[in-house]
Each structure stands twice: as structure tokens, then as C-alpha cells.
Write a structure and sequence with these properties.
Keywords: Cell membrane, Membrane, Transmembrane, Transmembrane helix, Transport. By secondary structure, the protein is mostly helical. The chain is built from 15 helices and no strands. Helices cover 81% and strands 0% of the residues. The two termini are 28 Å apart.
């Protein structure tokens, strides 16, 4: 799918920021993503410390993402029917309350693992609506022309938050504990609500609301099945989500059991991964076109490198592998996100993106406990090797299926050309 006629000049690397509303949104997004990373690292480490069990971290991941697995398509339908800006203000306000609750429990010393699981589950229900709404709202802020650049910038901002957040979280964990990490995220959610209120609504480009009708979820599934660019991208996203995107489980195990670096090491590994991802996200702004083949190649290389990361014998080599994994991870995820959005009609985009998020987050709900069990039973190295090998094989299998499909299509159109 051609996006630009030629590779954009370097001065257009941040072209989406020329849109005033997007500048405000990007500012709030940076604050929110930094705070989310602070809370995520603190939450996972606190679960590990309270339980002494890596598998418990996997259960935390599952509780957070399970609602998306079960109700993700319903969330997309809500996004297609209601104003995205309003939905985001509601979801961010609820998120602020949940993070504040975690902060109170942690700061008073009464927090238990089951408290974290319950709030993680509640946060997961908020994500059912928040995540697809956030994805689709970007297109309303910047329009179709700068959508690809905005998607890449959003990924860059997310990873910049991932670069800052874990380092701050590690310092907070060592100095004052996890409670203040949760309080920071609660405040950040309120900042997002304030920024959304300040956007100039006259400059937004809202998609027409979809009227209530029967069979709208089935309509989205049929639409996806009919478009190979969307279908096979979603399949690859799902496989990677189950196996490769369970990094909290893997990195917690490497920090606790392999290199014995504790909370500081866990924050460091997340920061190194995010630094690589930031480079990958910035590189993705230089894309002149998007093709399914390019997305699949990025997925296969990312998965293969993650499998090799499990073989690293020393911490320095492991960190180098994490940096490279971060680069390829973001080249894949920004390409997949943009390809799915640009291949979708605006009237159905909310439901299609909810399916994308369902697979991305719901897959982690399945993969978290599975990888936690594998790591607990066989060790962190074996877990990481498996987390990369399975998706790499899936990418090869999808490539072979598409190649055979193209040859069959060419044979039907021109048998002589195929024989030649």
C-alpha cells in the first residue's frame, strides 16, 4: 500500500506535530505513557516481591488483558458509535481512580497480591474502550494525510515514556516504594483529561457515528477475512502477543533469577528495550510505503532475534540483544498498526482496530500465564528462546501460504506466464 510517492525529507520526520491539536495530544500522551511505564514496572515488581513467584507476574498480565480478549470487539463497536474524545475523557478519569486506589493501598502498607489483580482486571475493562478509542482518535486529530507519521510518533512517544518510566520507577522502588509510582499515574490520567478538554473541536475530523443495527460485529469479521493485508497482519500480531510480547515475565525472571540485579536491573532492562524501540519508532517515520511483506519480514526478524537473546550468557550481551529487539519490535508494530488502519474504511475502523487490540492485548492475557509457567519450570533462558522461536516459525509459515496463494492466482490469470 503506497503511502507517499517518495521517502519524506528529514524535516518532515515530525510533520504530524504541525497540527496544533496533535501537539497538545502528543504532549499529554508523553506524560501518560511515562506514568504508565512507571506504574507497570512498579506493579510487576511489587507482585514478584509479594508473591516470590514469577508465575504471579504472568497472572497479573493476564488479569490486565483478559477483558480485551473477551470483550474487545464490543469495545470497538462502542468506539464506532460514540464520540472518541468523550470516551477517552471517561476512560482516563476511571483510570485515575484505579491508580489512586493502588497508591493508597501501597502507601498504607496494606496491599496484597489479590488487590493488584482486582485493580488490574478493572483496568483491563477500561482498556477495552480506551485503547481502540485512542487509536482511532489519532486519525480524527491529524486526518488521513499525516496518519502514518502520527502513528509512528505515537509509538515513539510510547517508547520515550518506556525509556524514562522504568528508570524513574526503579529509583522510586529503591527509595520510597511502589506507592508513589501509582500516585504519579493517577495524576497523569487527570492531565490527559484536561488536555482533551482543551482541544479545538472545530479542527477535529470525526468519523460519522455508526447507527445501531444487527450483525455489526459479524460485519467487521467478514470485512477482515476479505482483506489479506488486514487478516495476515492480525494473525501475526496475535502469535507475537502470546509468545514474544510477554516481556514483563521474561525480564523479571532475568533480573531476579539469572543476573540477580533486582529492581534496578529490571528497570534497566525495560529502559534498554525502550531505547531500541524508540530508535525503531523514529526509523518507521521514514517509510515511503507499507506492504504486508515488509511487515511479515520485520516480525520474523524480531522474533528470531528474541530467540537469540535467550542465548546471551552475560548481562552486557543481553542488553545489546534487548536494544536490537526493541528496534525490530517497533518497526513491526508501527507497520502493522498503520497497515491495518489505512486498509480499513473509517466507518468500520473502530471495530477493526478493536480486533487488532484484542489480539495484541488479549494474546498477552493468554501468553502471560503460559510464559510464566514455562519460565518457572524451565528457566528464563528457555522461556525467551521459545518466545521468539514460535513466532519466527509462524512468520515463515504465513510467508509460504501467501507465496502459494499468489502463484495460484497467477496460474488462474495467466498459466503460460507461470510456466515461463
Amino acid at each position: 500500500m503506497p503511502v507517499l510517492e517518495r521517502r519524506p525529507p528529514w524535516r518532515h520526520t515530525l510533520i504530524a506535530l504541525s497540527v496544533p491539536n496533535y501537539r497538545l495530544f502528543a504532549f499529554s500522551h508523553l506524560i501518560a505513557m511515562t506514568a504508565i511505564w512507571i506504574q507497570r514496572v512498579s506493579q510487576d515488581w511489587l507482585v514478584l516481591q509479594l508473591s516470590g513467584n514469577v508465575a504471579a507476574v504472568g497472572i497479573t498480565v493476564a488479569m490486565q488483558f483478559a477483558p480485551m480478549l473477551l470483550f474487545g470487539m464490543l469495545g470497538g463497536l462502542i468506539v464506532d458509535r460514540f464520540p472518541k474524545r468523550t470516551l477517552l475523557m471517561v476512560t482516563q478519569a476511571v483510570s485515575a481512580l484505579l491508580s489512586a486506589g493502588l497508591a493508597v493501598l501501597a502507601l498504607t502498607g496494606t496491599i496484597q497480591v489479590w488487590h493488584i489483580w482486582v485493580i488490574a482486571l478493572a483496568s483491563g475493562f477500561v482498556t477495552v474502550v480506551d485503547n481502540p478509542a485512542r487509536q482511532v482518535f489519532v486519525s480524527e486529530v491529524v486526518g488521513h494525510r499525516h496518519l502514518t507519521n502520527a502513528i509512528s510518533l505515537n509509538a515513539s512517544i510510547f517508547q520515550l515514556g518506556g525509556l524514562i518510566g522504568p528508570a524513574v520507577s526503579g529509583a522510586l522502588l529503591l527509595s520510597v516504594g511502589a506507592g508513589w509510582s501509582f500516585a504519579i499515574n493517577a495524576a497523569a490520567c487527570l492531565v490527559v483529561v484536561t488536555v482533551l478538554l482543551c482541544l479545538r473541536t472545530s479542527d477535529l475530523l470525526p468519523a460519522p457515528a455508526v447507527q445501531r443495527a444487527r450483525g455489526q460485529l459479524k460485519e467487521a469479521l467478514v470485512y477482515v477475512l476479505a482483506k489479506p493485508e488486514i487478516l495476515w497482519t492480525l494473525v501475526m500480531v496475535g502469535v507475537l502477543a502470546v509468545f514474544a510480547f510477554t516481556m514483563p515475565v521474561l525480564l523479571a525472571a532475568f533480573a531476579d533469577d539469572v543476573f540477580h540485579t533486582g529492581a534496578g536491573g529490571y528497570g534497566l532492562y525495560n529502559s534498554v528495550l525502550a531505547a531500541g524501540a524508540l530508535v525503531g519508532a523514529i526509523a518507521s517515520t521514514r517509510r515511503a510505503s507499507l506492504r504486508l511483506r515488509t511487515v511479515l519480514i520485520a516480525a520474523g526478524l524480531f522474533a528470531l532475534l528474541q530467540a537469540l537473546g535467550g542465548l546471551m550468557p552475560v548481562e552486557f550481551a543481553f542488553c545489546l540483544a534487548l536494544f536490537a529487539i526493541g528496534v525490530l519490535n517497533l518497526l513491526f508494530i508501527t507497520g502493522a498498526n498503520a497497515l491495518v488502519q489505512l486498509s480499513s474504511n473509517p466507518s468500520i475502523r473502530g471495530r477493526v482496530m478493536s480486533l487488532y487490540i484484542l489480539l495484541l492485548l488479549g494474546g498477552q492475557a493468554i501468553g502471560g500465564p503460559v510464559m510464566g509457567w514455562i519460565v518457572q519450570a524451565y528457566g528464563a533462558h528457555v522461556g525467551m528462546i521459545i518466545s521468539g522461536t514460535v513466532p519466527a516459525l509462524a512468520a515463515v509459515a504465513i510467508g509460504l501460504i501467501l507465496r502459494r496463494s499468489r502463484r495460484r492466482t497467477a496460474l488462474l490469470v495467466d498459466p503460460a506466464a507461470v510456466r515461463g
